[in-house]
């Protein structure tokens, strides 16, 4: 397979994805109904230049992570995803690798939750996608790369967060994250990226190392979370963690009880989006 075939496939699939189905505005002058290159780049978390070079056959050998991100952004079926991997000269990830594929049925579910902050992570807690409401609530994470997109790495390596924990909540959350990650590690012991993540966390965080060496194993549960938003202030929301067992995905959903101040703030966030209110 040649990079020209890869480029043609990417362009063909890009043309069939309507921007509104991907949570993007459909306004403005558009030559085609599908995604623009810059929109595909945004959804996949790669540069516009790289998308252009892939489509024009000027870039070869994209990584598995890039191919997986493109498959998610383009909403490919299982067969199409496998075909894309082969066009890129790669073998589709096998059962020994942490899955990162969003099935069409999961994608349809997410499409219906446009007014609800929703993020989808893999079993290692690496963020795969987030809808606009999630970005409005938690901050735009589309520019994060590599382990910066991993929730365990961000929490133990001191990355900025809008979540506010009490000391006890923080301890319980850390134990839950390490317990979940160890369980995932046990299911995918041959996943090289997962082994690298654990090694980097042990080297960079004494607290993570202590918990990892303690051998905690379990599941991270949903909870109530307090979020400090720069424009609407504090929100205490229900944070439910839904599991897609067949694909080993985590769907994180934030919600508020109707009629409460938190519900009003979430409604305001749906209008504000990620825009800055600084004059």
UniProtKB/TrEMBL annotation:
SMART domains: HTH_XRE (SM00530). Signal peptide: none annotated. Residues 30-81 form the HTH cro/C1-type domain. Pfam families: HTH_31, MLTR_LBD. InterPro entries: Cro/C1-type_HTH, Lambda_DNA-bd_dom_sf, MLTR_LBD. PANTHER family: BLL4672 PROTEIN, BLL4672 PROTEIN-RELATED. This is Helix-turn-helix transcriptional regulator.
């Amino acid at each position: 397979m040649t990079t020209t075939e890869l480029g043609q496939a990417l362009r063909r699939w890009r043309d069939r994805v309507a921007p509104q189905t991907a949570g993007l505005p459909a306004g403005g002058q558009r030559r085609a109904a599908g995604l623009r290159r810059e929109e595909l780049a945004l959804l996949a978390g790669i540069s516009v230049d790289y998308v252009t070079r892939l489509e024009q056959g000027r870039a070869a050998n994209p990584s598995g992570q890039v191919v997986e991100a493109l498959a998610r952004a383009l909403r490919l079926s299982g067969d199409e995803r496998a075909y894309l991997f082969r066009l890129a000269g790669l073998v589709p990830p096998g059962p020994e690798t942490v899955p990162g594929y969003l099935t069409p049925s999961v994608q349809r579910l997410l499409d219906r939750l446009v007014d609800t902050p929703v993020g989808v992570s893999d079993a290692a807690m690496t963020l795969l996608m987030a809808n606009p409401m999630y970005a409005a609530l938690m901050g735009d994470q589309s520019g994060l790369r590599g382990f910066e997109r991993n929730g365990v790495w961000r929490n133990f390596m001191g990355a900025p967060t809008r979540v506010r924990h009490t000391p006890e909540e923080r301890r319980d959350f850390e134990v839950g994250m390490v317990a979940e990650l160890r369980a995932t590690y046990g299911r995918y012991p041959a996943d090289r990226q997962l082994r690298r993540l654990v090694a980097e966390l042990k080297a960079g965080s004494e607290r993570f190392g202590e918990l990892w060496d303690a051998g905690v194993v379990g599941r991270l549960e949903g909870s109530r979370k307090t979020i400090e938003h720069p424009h609407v202030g504090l929100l205490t929301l229900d944070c439910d963690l839904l599991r897609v067992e067949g694909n080993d995905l985590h769907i994180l959903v934030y919600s508020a009880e109707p009629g409460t101040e938190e519900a009003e703030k979430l409604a305001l966030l749906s209008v504000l989006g990620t825009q800055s209110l600084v004059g």
